[in-house]
Amino acid sequence: MLIREELEIREKETLSPFACLSADSRGRSRPEEPCDIRTCYMRDRDRIVHSKAFRRLKDKTQVFLSPQGDHYRTRMMHTLEVSQTARTVARCLRLNEDLVEAIALGHDLGHTPFGHAGERALNDVSPDGFVHSAQSLRIVDSLEKEGRGLNLTAEVRDGILNHGTKDQPSTLEGQVVRLCDKIAYVHHDTDDGIRAGLISEGDIPASLRQLLGENTRARLNTFIHDIVRESRGQDHISMSPLIGEALFDMRDFMFRHLYTNPAAKSEEIKADRMLKQLYTYYTTYPETMGPEFFRMITEGGEKTERVVCDYISGMTDQYSIARYREIFVPRSWSKY
C-alpha cells in the first residue's frame, strides 16, 4: 500500500465526520497522477510554498508601508500567523489540517504592493475592478508556472476565493481560515500599532479588555478558545454572539485608531498615486512589462488592462518603487 493511501485511511479513521477528506476531493481542473507519499492537499500546500508569488509576500505591506523595524509584520508574516492559528483550530476540531494550511498559505497571494491601499488603487482604475481574493485565485490558476498555474484542488481554490467577508467557503476548513484571517490581523495589527506607539492598551475600550483580555496574547487565546468551543461537533464554524461581536468591535477600533491614522497611513496617498501612474504607463506601453506579460496580450488574447493589473499586483513594495523611479524620475547624465 502506498504511503498516501495509508494517510487517507488515517484521515477516515481519525477526522471529524464534518472534515473534508483528501480521498473525497473534487479533484483538479487538469487530472494528474496522485503522488505516492502525499495527499492531494499536502501537494497543494507544497506547490503554494514553492511558488514565486508566495516568496514575494515577504516584501508586501501588511499595515505599515515598507516598515524599517525588524518586528513589524509583512504580508508574509500575516500569512504564516493565519496558517498557525487556523491549524490550531483545525486540530482541535479534528478537521483536515493540510487543507487548512494550503488555503491559509494561498489566501493572500494576490495582494498588491502597499496592501489594501494598492488594492484600492487598482480597483479605482481597472475597468473590471480589482479584488485581491480573486487575484489570488488567478495566480494559482493562470499566472504561476509560466501560465500553467498550480492546478490546485477545487477545495483549496474555493477557500482562497471565499476567504473575505462576502462569501462563505464550502468546506469547514475554508471557514476556519476565513475566521482566523480576521482574528490574526486584529491580533497582530494591534501588536504592531502598540509597538509603533500609535495606540496603547489603554486606548482599547475597557469593556473589550475586560471581556477579551488585557493584552494581545490573552485576546488571541480568547478568540481561539471561543471558536473551538462553539464549533466542536458542529457542521459549521462559528463564534459565540458575545465574542464574535467583540471581535468586530476590536476591528472597528482598529479602523478608527490605526488603519485610518494619518501617522501610519499618510504615505498611502503617494502609493495610490504611484500605482495609478504605473497603470497608465503600462496600459499605454504594454510591451515594457516584458515578454511573458506582453505575450498574454498578443498571443493569449487577454485584455491589456487585465494583464497590467497582473503585473502591478505581483510587484513587491520595493520593486514597484524601483520601476516608478526608473520610468518617471530623471537620471543624472554622465560621460565616462
Task: Give structural attributes.
mainly alpha, 17 helices, 336 residues, flat, 60% helix, 0% strand
Describe this structure in words.
It contains 17 helices and no strands. Helix content is 60%, strand content 0%. The chain has helices spanning 3-14, 40-49, 52-56, 75-92, 97-106, 115-125, 132-143, 154-161, 172-195, 206-212, 216-231, 241-259, 262-265, 268-284, 291-298, 304-313, 317-328. The radius of gyration is 21 Å and the shape is flat. The longest helix is centred in the middle third of the chain and has 24 residues, at 172-195. The chain has 336 residues and is mainly alpha-helical. The mean pLDDT is 95.
Distance between the termini: 70 Å
Largest sheet: none
Strand content: under 5%
Number of helices: 17
Report Rg: 21 Å
Quick structural gist:
The chain contains 17 helices and no strands.
Question: How is the secondary structure organized here?
Answer:
Layout: H1 3-14, H2 40-49, H3 52-56, H4 75-92, H5 97-106, H6 115-125, H7 132-143, H8 154-161, H9 172-195, H10 206-212, H11 216-231, H12 241-259, H13 262-265, H14 268-284, H15 291-298, H16 304-313, H17 317-328
